[in-house]
Structures are given as structure tokens and as C-alpha cells.
């Protein structure tokens, strides 16, 4: 359910872009992300750091886009977000005794430390790729193409990337019926 809710700002951004253009879409995105933070807080009395960071980066870069009337700032929001994710994931390989992905409370999966490290590294490299891809699309294609890639391309890439993990992590999934860890 949360994954579907997280798509709402992107869908609203795309719709606002198609109807009213980049500046309105940017304002809609910023408001939608801030509303998502508020809704999450009201539902759970806490806000995930990633959701808050995304909303803050969008607010700053979106605000700059609107203030300077220059869409360049919002074009690089995905790069800033994906780059920050990659740095955090890579940094966790040298800071602390567990990588970042292993520190996230896991109820569905139990894996050995080396596999957590590989999974964490794979996600870090994926985010580096997404950051670079966003720069490439922003600099080499039209604004309209960038909007489509931002709204649907990265979501599709992430879904494919997550599904590609299933054959490798499925044996480490916890059986919800028994709450038993794999052998």
C-alpha cells in the first residue's frame, strides 16, 4: 500500500506537467511530497528519513526552479536524491558494523552478512546508474522526454531491479505462517 501511495506525487507531477507545464508541475510535486510527509506523520507519528529527505530536496530544488523560473534545478532532483542514496549505501560499507540495508528492520528476510553487503552494494550501484542516467536524459533530451522518464522510467527500472533480486533472495525469505527463518 505504501508503495502505491509513494507513486502519487510522481503521477500528480506528470498530470500537472501535461496540463499546465513544468512550473505548475514542480509546485504540485513539492506540495504532494510535503503532504505525503504530513500524512505519514499523522498515520504513524513518525516520518521515514528517506521520505523526509526526498521532500526537502524537492522543496529546495523545486523552490529554486520556481524562484528563478528555470526548470534546470528540478531536472536534477532525481540525480541529487539517487546520488545521496548511493553515497549513504556506499558509506555504510565503511561506517558501522552493518551495511545500511541490513540496519533497516527486517521481518521478511534473514541473510548472512556477506549477502547483505552484496545486496547493499548492488543497490548503491543501481542508484549511481540512475543518477547518471538522469543527468544523461536531462542534458540530451527534451523536457517532455525527461518528464516521462522521471515519472515512469525510473519507477519501471526500480521494479525490474527489485524483481531481478527474487531468484537470489527468495531462499532467505521468512515464512510468514511460521515466522521461521530459512535453514
List the helices and strands and how they pair.
Layout lengths: L1 H19 L1 H23 L4 H20 L3 H4 L1 H15 L8 H4 L9 H28 L2 H27 L14
Describe the overall structure.
- It is a single chain.
- The chain has helices at 2-20, 22-44, 49-68, 72-75, 77-91, 100-103, 113-140, 143-169.
- Helix content is 77%, strand content 0%.
- The protein is mainly alpha-helical and 183 residues long.
- The chain has two domains: 1-69; 76-183, no CATH class.
- α1 runs antiparallel to α8 (143-169).
How many strands, what sense, and barrel or not for the largest sheet? none
Cα(first) to Cα(last) distance is: 30 Å
Strand content: under 5%
Number of strands: 0
Individual helix count: 8
Q: Level of helix content?
A: over 70%
Q: Residue ranges: pLDDT <50 for 5 or more in a row?
A: none
The outline comes out as globular
What is the rounded Rg? 18 Å
What is the domain tally?
2
Structural class: mainly alpha
Average pLDDT score:
91
Order of SSEs: HHHHHHHH
In short:
The protein is mainly alpha-helical. The protein is built from 8 helices and no strands. Helix 1 runs antiparallel to helix 8.
